[in-house]
Specification:
Layout (H helix, E strand, L loop, with lengths): L1 E9 L4 H15 L5 E8 L7 E8 L2 H6 L4 H12 L1 E4 L3 E4 L9
Antiparallel strand pairs: 1-3, 1-4, 1-5, 2-3
Length: 102
């Protein structure tokens, strides 16, 4: 399994739009081959504009294939539009992973 991690700094007043855009992304990403889970975490303070997204995939190939999905790419560009800045996406190997049984 592999993970993709990205950090975002959300523009003032754009948290609701950022969250709504993420909700539309979850509908699309759930259908992509090899997708396991998406977590989006917000900073410790309730007023924090920092967020981190972590997605888990069966393989690096599956993760990279999602970049070619037009809906995923479109939603991702909308998400970035809600942000002042974002880090490059980092690929990392998952050393240990445990997900609840569905």
């Amino acid at each position: 399994m592999v993970a993709r991690a990205t950090h975002y700094r959300i523009r003032p007043g754009k948290l609701d739009e950022f969250t709504a855009t993420l909700q539309s992304l979850t509908a699309a990403i759930d259908k992509l081959k090899g997708f396991r889970v998406l977590l989006v975490l917000r900073g410790e303070e309730s007023t924090s504009r920092e967020a981190m997204a972590i997605s888990i995939w069966d393989s690096a190939e599956d993760m990279k294939d999602c970049d070619n999905d037009t809906f995923y790419y479109h939603v991702l560009s909308q998400l970035i539009g809600c942000c002042e800045s974002f880090s490059p996406m980092h690929e990392q190997d998952v050393l240990v992973g445990k997900f609840a049984n569905s």
